[in-house]
Amino acid sequence: MSLNAIAAPRCVRLDSWCQWRHQRWFILIAALVELFWFSGYHYGYNALIDPFKQIGVFRYACNASEENCPLQEKLFHYAFLVWVIVQMCLITGAGIIMDRFGLRLLKLLAVGIYFVGTLMFAFTKGESSNLLFVAGIFVALGCVSSLICNHQISSMFPEFRGFTISLMSGAFDSSTVVTFLITKTFPSISLQTSFVVVACCALFYGTMMGLFGLTQWSEDMSNRGMKVDVDDTVERQVDKHRNGDDELEGNVKYNVDERIQAILESRYPSLRRCIFSWPFFLVTLWFMFGMLRFSYFLNQMEYRLNGNKYLPQTSIEFLGQNARHKSSILAAY
């Protein structure tokens, strides 16, 4: 017996635990709060470099007499590159898990990974500096997988789907404020205490979202627990369309979305067919060149800033550092 068949009755009960009229608005607000406080704080990692230096992270790469150690600085940047590249290489697995087992399992798995990664941040010290590489990978994978799950909430708002996705994406990007607050409260509140609090709150909040905020399948995902003869459905609907028979038997309303979904599943029945299709190739090619162009722009911006005599040197260094971080993210994409 498959895992879906075993979990199906319990998932159905969780999906219908509340029938409140304004339930979808409550879930959307809860998702925005989660994405703002417990998601992509690692993108504000440059704010944490100085506190990590003060507790001796990567200090082993420097001589005792060195005050400004270039190799230590490079190791911090290498860690960030490793996070982003590994995230981009492995995030496809999140989509496969979601398609195979549903939103709820992926959400709970993402929350667990995020929790472990944040605890690793908490216990990163001079003696365990290399733990920073693994911590960032876990946090990056966990938060992006969680974002993918939360994006499915937009199916509850078919009239405002684009606006809903943009709200959640904005909340996700704004979560860098967490690292800003952690930095500002250091050393009054230690990094370990701050990250342990974030980890525990994220575990509780994310688990509640996974169990009660998300459904097993979103409204625009086909029910994987039921076997549907897609080919027969498509052929029947196409024949009706060709014969000009647009009237459905009885008084059942013709569902255009179901027809489109059936045609797409018939044309791309497997993951392999999707990946090796022309639409996927063209979109990937367009996205790759677009990101390459923007990454080149960010890299060149630092050189332009260095020749600007009207900006303070500290501002130039800050903007240049952020440009390098953003360009490394885009290069990984």
TrEMBL record:
Q: Which InterPro entries is this protein grouped with?
A: MFS, MFS_trans_sf, SLC43A3
Q: Name one Pfam family in it.
A: MFS_1
Signal sequence coordinates: none
Q: Where are the transmembrane segments?
A: 25-43, 75-98, 105-124, 130-150, 162-182, 194-214, 275-296
- What is a single molecular function from GO for this protein? transmembrane transporter activity
Where would one find coiled-coil regions in this protein? Answer: none
Q: Which domain of life is it from?
A: Eukaryota
Supply the alphabetized keyword list. Membrane, Transmembrane, Transmembrane helix
Q: What is this protein called?
A: Solute carrier family 43 member 3
Whose protein is this, by species? Paragonimus westermani
